[in-house]
Design brief:
Uridine Diphospho-n-acetylenolpyruvylglucosamine Reductase, domain 1; about 350 residues; five-stranded antiparallel beta sheet; alpha+beta; Uridine Diphospho-n-acetylenolpyruvylglucosamine Reductase, domain 2
C-alpha cells in the first residue's frame, strides 16, 4: 500500500496527455495489498478512481479530494472453482492472453481493448458479440461508506450495453472472477472478421487464431490504441457511444457507410456490437451531420481515417477537447435530432459544468 501523495500530475498517466493534478493520490498495486492494509488501518475515502486512464478526460483544474489509482495486480486460475481471477489493476488484454494460453473461451473477441480489468467492469466492455457481463461470476468491491469489502454476484446487479452497476464510482472494484469455457461459446459472425480470416487462411474455430483475427481487424479499423500512429496526436479512441435511433433515421445515417454493405448487413453488425437493431455507428452519425475525417478544431482534430477518434493534435488543453466534443454533440442534435452520449468519461469540472 503506497503512501498518500499530494498534487500529483495526472496528465502523463492519461491517453489524452492532459489534465491537472490530483489533490491527493493513492496508488494501489493489488487487491491483496489493499486488504492487508484494511486489517491495520482505515484507508482514506476516494472521490475518483483511475486505472490505465485510456478512456477518461480529466479537467485542466485537476481533481479535488483523493484519487485512487489501480495499477497492476494478479491474474490466476482457480482450478477448484473453474474461475479466472483478476485484480482491478491488471491490464485487460493481459487477461485475454492469459485465458487464450489456457484454452479458455469467452473473452477472445474482446482482444485488444485497452484499459484495466477494473475499467472493463466499470463500463461492461463488449465487442464482436461478447460482453464482460456474459462471463462474469462475481465482482469484489470496496464500499467506502461501510469501510468493507464484499462480493457481488453477477445476478445481484443490473448490467446492459456499456452499462455497469459500478459506473457511478461509488464503490471501488478490487477484483473479479470470470467463468470461461473449454469450448467455443460465441459464434464469430462479424462479416469483416470472417473476410479477414478467409483472406489470410486463418481458422476462426481456433482460439489462438480467433484472437489473431480480432487483433488484425481492430488494427485495420484503427481500434487498437496507439498514441504513435498519428505522430504527436493523443487519443482515447472512440469518443461517443453508438446511439439507438428511430427507423425513419436509420437509412439516412447508414447511407454514409463506404464499404458497400447493405442496410441489412450494417444493422446485423450493429446488433452484434450493441444488442439493438436500431443501434447505429456513431461514425455514420458524425458523417451524416457533416463532420469530416481529419477536420480541425484549433488544436483538436478528428482522426484522418477514423472520424470517431477525437485527438489532442497539437498540445490542446482538456477544455479544448471537451469543447470540441460538446460542439459535435450539439451539432448532431441540431441537424439530425440524435442524442450522442460520451463514451469517454469526464472527470473534474469543465466550464459549462460550473
Amino acid at each position: 500500500m503506497s503512501q498518500i501523495l499530494q498534487n500529483v500530475d495526472l496528465a502523463p498517466l492519461t491517453s489524452f496527455g492532459v489534465g491537472g493534478p490530483a489533490q491527493a493520490y493513492l496508488k494501489l498495486d493489488s487487491s491483496a495489498a489493499f486488504k492487508r492494509f484494511l486489517r491495520v488501518a482505515d484507508p482514506p475515502g476516494f472521490e475518483w478512481l483511475l486505472g490505465s486512464a485510456t478512456n477518461v478526460l480529466i479537467s485542466d483544474r485537476g481533481l479535488d479530494g483523493t484519487t485512487w489509482h489501480f495499477a497492476g495486480g494478479r491474474l490466476a486460475f482457480d482450478e477448484a472453482d473453474g474461475l479466472l481471477l483478476a485484480d482491478a489493476g491488471a491490464v485487460w488484454d493481459d487477461l485475454v492472453v492469459f485465458a487464450v494460453a489456457r484454452g479458455l473461451w469467452g473473452v477472445e473477441l474482446m482482444s485488444g481493448i485497452p484499459g484495466t480489468v477494473g475499467g472493463a467492469a466499470a463500463i461492461n466492455i463488449n465487442a464482436y458479440g461478447q460482453a464482460l457481463a456474459d462471463v462474469l461470476a462475481w465482482v469484489e468491491v470496496y464500499d467506502p461508506l461501510e469501510k468493507s469489502c464484499r462480493r457481488i454476484a453477477f445476478d445481484e446487479a443490473d448490467w446492459g450495453y456499456k452499462r455497469s452497476p459500478f459506473a457511478d464510482g461509488r464503490q471501488a472494484v478490487l477484483s473479479l472472477a470470470l467463468k470461461l469455457e473449454k469450448r467455443p461459446t460465441t459464434e464469430l459472425r462479424y462479416g469483416t472478421a470472417l473476410k479477414y480470416a478467409a483472406d489470410r487462411g486463418l481458422d476462426a474455430g481456433s482460439l489462438a487464431e480467433r484472437r489473431q483475427i480480432i487483433l488484425g481487424v481492430r488494427a485495420a479499423a484503427g481500434s487498437l490504441l496507439d498514441s504513435s500512429e498519428s505522430g504527436s496526436a493523443r487519443t482515447c479512441g472512440s469518443f461517443f457511444k453508438n446511439p439507438v435511433i428511430g427507423r425513419e433515421k436509420i437509412e439516412a445515417v447508414i447511407a454514409h457507410e463506404e464499404t458497400n454493405l447493405t442496410a441489412k448487413e450494417l444493422l446485423a453488425m450493429n446488433r452484434l456490437h450493441g444488442g439493438s437493431a436500431g443501434r447505429v455507428s456513431a461514425a455514420h452519425v458524425l458523417l451524416a451531420a457533416g463532420f469530416k475525417r481529419g477536420q480541425r478544431f484549433g488544436r483538436v482534430r478528428l482522426h484522418p481515417d477514423h472520424v470517431l477518434k477525437v485527438e489532442n493534435f497539437a498540445s490542446a488543453s482538456a477544455q479544448e477537447i471537451y469543447d470540441t466534443a460538446r460542439l459535435i454533440q450539439k451539432t448532431v442534435k441540431m441537424r439530425l435530432d440524435i442524442d450522442l452520449e460520451f463514451e469517454v468519461k469526464t472527470m473534474g469540472v469543465f466550464d459549462d459544468q460550473k
